[in-house]
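Our preliminary data section would be incomplete without showing what the modeling component actually yields. Below, a chain of 295 amino acids is followed by its predicted structure, encoded as tokens that our downstream tools consume directly.
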Amino acid sequence: MTNDLDALLTALYVKIDDEITGTRWLGRPPRLTDSELVCLAVAQAMLGFTSESRWLRFVHSRLGAMFPFVPKQPGWNKRLRAALPLVKRAIRLLATDTDFWFDNHWIIDSTPVECGRSRPTVKRSDLAGCAGYGYCASHSRFFWGLRLYLVCTPTGMPILWSLANPKLDEREVPRCSIVTGRGHRPSRPAGDHGQGFASKEFETDLTLRGAELLRPSFKRERRRKGELLLKSVRQLIESVNDTLKGQLDLEQHGGRTFEGVAVRVAQRILALAAAIWHNHKTGQPITQSLIAYDS
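Predicted structure:
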């Protein structure tokens, strides 16, 4: 099997069509199936199209043989926003179809998802009430938007993710994500490269669920188990965030509502999961690499 975008889309279409989508339409079926919609969403993120109008023109001119029908921009936007549950299921399906799902360690981190910069945007945005002001210590900057909490394997395969107001306690959001994760029971250590998730309540809650938190020790605290490994863990999670922001344009999502931002963030996480899944299946040496799919 070759390792390019056409091969990835073909394998992804077969996987989604066989295990998620099916005949569920009582009336006339849509001309663009759910499997085709997922593949187009992945291709858009892979090729770096942040403008939907430019993307649809590209599909009509270059991908017409693979996708005979593509709706116009209003129809595409409507179908994409309605596909958020489908995209979430696809991410979980790809994660469980790899050996990475059984990894002994998972990594937790958060990163900003900027949604606006000007004061008028903050006042008039439909994201008011969901988004807020926050501070990113890694880049020493303030931002207005949401914060993405991501749980992934050391290879970068996404396991759980959630979007939240940056003013919320960083320990509460991952706890809720783990509790509400469908079919997920933590049974492995969770690594955190910083001390933002450090609290006795959070560690106790993870222990009761069969997981152990690995984090740096405080100044007056004894050296914790596995602390020497956290420097390399930080490089792993930073590489995942860099891929999402640098190659998949995470902060150029263009969403104007919470549902719009959520599905566009999920679209990019799905693209990362699909690339890692396909690289793993084709035996590539670097599973997190997206170079073969960006042209």
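Residues 258-281 form the longest helix (24 residues). The domain at 103-253 is CATH 3.30.420 (Nucleotidyltransferase; domain 5). Preliminary results of this kind motivate Aim 1 of the renewal.
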